[in-house]
Amino acid sequence: MKLLLIKMSSMGDVFHIFPALSDALQDIPDLQVDWIVESSFAQIPTWHPAVQHVFPIELRKWRKAPFKNRHKIREFFAEINSQNYDLVIDAQGLLKSAWVMGKITTDKKAGFNWSSAREALASFWYNKKIAVDKNQHSIWRLRELFYKSLGYAEPKQENINYALATANWQKLTLDNGLAENEKYAVFLHGTTWETKYWPENYWLDLANRINELNIKVVLPWGNVAEKFRAEKVLTKVSKGGQVIIPNNMLSLNEMAQCLKYAEFVVAVDTGLSHVAAALDVKMVVLYRVTDPVKIGATGSKVKQLISPEASFYLKTFESEAQEKNSLVNIAPNDVINALEEFK
């Protein structure tokens, strides 16, 4: 069976589709999946054994200048429409993904129905409209969409199976202090909202305590501000050489290699936490101002620490008391206790 999947962004959403693909591959062994995804995430789909081809799309750029990019748009969809798909699934349920669906000429199109789609109007573009319970985690919504679209039995397993093909991956070594045989943890400290940040003194406290266990700490970075924050922790850490900052920003593949072989990961609410969850790495995720119930990183080795302010999705704090309350349940001691539960 040949399937075309539309799931373009964001990073967490892209990873949430993997368990559904694993379900489908188990029930349809000859399944071949082509995937339309934002070009910045084009490496990710290749990690799953069901995926045969990736179509990197630059939808954000196209929407800003459609006339300028009209030839690229035409060529992109001409290549897709030259294929013969048994089904196209829009797993995003947004108007932007429905626009992509509308450019595909087949009439074998499935997606969320009016009451299930994130943007209800998207359902008009599908021939097969699937009712899915919205009051569940995104992973389970997508698994339900897949088994109802493809016609196999509802998955029975409780565990989430990302089933990424990582057996041939090599352990990442860094030229500035991480040898192949050394144990290390990864701290994912960068995120989009300032209110999601964990205080620098908390990262420093945790780094010192992890170093006492003869485990090094890797602080990756994705921009200048994140590198500066990591360097501030490095200058204050007790044991010199035990905190490592990569000289260069890691590619997505390199970041995944780094996460896969870590002893454990500590993360704020960031897209890379979903990468670690999918790689089945021991991880503690800190939810300071966001609620993980429907879209949080989850997996067999993920522990979530949630503050009393998590359900409010705060982009700014209204008071010092609210800011202080957002750190309740997610202090360094709470992280250490959660890590102890892995033993």
Written account of the structure:
The chain has 343 residues and is of the alpha/beta class. Helices cover 33% and strands 16% of the residues. It is built from twelve helices and twelve strands. The protein has helices spanning 11-16, 18-27, 59-64, 70-81, 95-102, 138-150, 200-211, 224-236, 252-260, 271-278, 320-325, 332-340, and strands at residues 2-6, 32-38, 51-57, 87-90, 109-112, 128-130, 184-188, 216-218, 243-244, 265-268, 283-287, 302-306. It starts with a strand and ends with a helix.
Secondary structure tally: strands: 12
Poorly predicted tracts of residues:
none
Top CATH class of the largest domain: Alpha Beta
Radius of gyration: 21 Å
- Label the overall shape: globular
Query: What is the CATH architecture assignment of the largest domain?
Result: 3-Layer(aba) Sandwich
Structurally, the number of domains stands at 2
Individual helix count: 12
- Indicate the structural class: alpha/beta
Fraction of helical residues: 25-40%
Mean pLDDT metric: 95
The sequence of SSEs as H and E is EHHEEHHEHEEHEHEHEHEHEEHH
* Adjacency order of strands in the biggest sheet: 3-2-1-4-5-6
User: What's the CATH H-level homologous superfamily of the largest domain?
Assistant: Glycogen Phosphorylase B
